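We now fix the convention by which a protein and its fold are recorded. The integers have meaning only within a learned vocabulary of local backbone shapes. A complete example follows; check for yourself that the lines match position by position.
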Amino acid sequence: MTVYKWLTPNGTWIHKKGIAPDVAVDQPAYFKVAPLSKKTTLKPDSNSEDVKNLQIMLQGLGLNPDRQDGYYSEKTTLAVKAFQRMNNLPVTGEVDTDTATKLEKSILTAIRDPKNDLQLKAAVQQIQSQLAK
């Protein structure tokens, strides 16, 4: 429950209207990725929304799965193996619960790292340009 009236600096009430950003900046796809369901082990030649989310996470971590359409390709397998090697996991090329959990923790770390926040960078740049005037 909101108990205050939210106003812009010039006194405009924004209730049910919101405000348009001065500078629109989209975050990378991995900022919006869904967690993996962990119901089954993800394997090569499968096709699902979980595989698509896996590919987005791998891309966000700098491992190139070559696609983000949900098909578990050979390049996706290679990217998973690289992730497993880097994280001292069994190198199977398949995403079991342990690999999925470690992958999600890694992508959360990347999301929380200010150097990956494009909106923060744009805001700082906007403030610096305003101060330079």
